[in-house]
Structure formats: structure tokens, C-alpha cells
Amino acid sequence: MVMMIGYVSADCPFVSRDEQKRILEETGCNVIFYGTFSKDGTFFLQFVARQKPGIRIAVVQMDCIVSSWRHLRDIILQVQNKGCTLVSVKEPWINTSAGRGTLMLEMLGGLEELEKRFIRQRMSTGRHRAMSAGCRMGRPTKLTSQQFEAVAQARAKGHTLREIAEEHNVSISMISRLLKKMPRKS
């Protein structure tokens, strides 16, 4: 019989610690381990590294150990490299001991990549449209064009960068960058 160890994320934002423990005990876990939630699954991977090959690791749901499909894929690879299997009680399609479970995870990962590509494409299109409509991207400028000119004149009169920066309520480095970008008058 395969030993099944339950992993309870003590600070899972979705399922209480006691509820996770109850569900894993009902599932038949011989041992319950209490860990910590991290977005990238770091603590869960440390737990996996300490396991012996052949162990079946159960979690109540994947978002108790990781917050993205990319990190989930990394976790599954680590579990498989260790010779263990991973199962989610509330997500039956996540079961690395069955070929269908692994296939489903790969398909979901592919869909996630496709969705990210669509989002990037929509954002890029939106940015181009906004720029062609005259919208300026990035942070608003701290100084007006008249203030830019005043900075150049103050520097030409011999004022220090510190004096100019204090007068316009900006940093010295900003004044320095601004002066480097301004065309020099001969």
C-alpha cells in the first residue's frame, strides 16, 4: 500500500487549517504535515525534497500551495522527479499518478499560455491606439515646459543643481537628467 501524506497549508487564504486537516484525514492520509503558503510554492517544494520516492502527496486544493499555473507546473515536475505523486482532493483532474491527470495539467498550462498571449496582444494594441490618439504613456511630467526653460536659464546663470532642484521641488538627479537631454545653445 502506498503511503499518503497530506500537506496542510497553515495560512492558506481559501480553506482553514482545520478544514484542510479534516478533509485530508477523510481522504485517508496516514500523516499530516503542516506547512506554509507561498505564491511560488517554495515551502511545498522544501517539503517534497524531504520525501522518499513512492510517496503519494495529497493537498485539499492547489491554490493552498501555489498561486499560478506556471509555478504549479514546476511543482509537479519536482514531485515527479522525486518519484512521488501529487493529488488534489477538490480538483480530481490534478492527479499525477494517472496519465489523464498529467495530460489535463499540460492542457491547462497550454491554455494559460494562450490566454497570457491574448492579454499581451490586447494590451499592446490598446497602447498603440492610445498613443496614436495622442495619449502620453508613463508617469506625468513634474515640470512644465516653462519650468524646463527656467531650469536651463538658471543653470546658464551659474546656479547649482541643488539650488535649481530646491526651487522647483524636485530631485537633483532629475535636474541633472533634464539638463543632459536639453539641446545646448551655442
UniProtKB/TrEMBL annotation:
InterPro entries: Homeodomain-like_sf, Resolv_N, Resolvase-like_N_sf
Gene Ontology terms for molecular function: DNA binding; DNA strand exchange activity
Source organism superkingdom: Bacteria
Residue span, Resolvase/invertase-type recombinase catalytic domain: 4-136
Membership in a protein family: Belongs to the site-specific recombinase resolvase family.
Protein name, per record: DNA resolvase
Organism: Acetobacter pasteurianus NBRC 3188
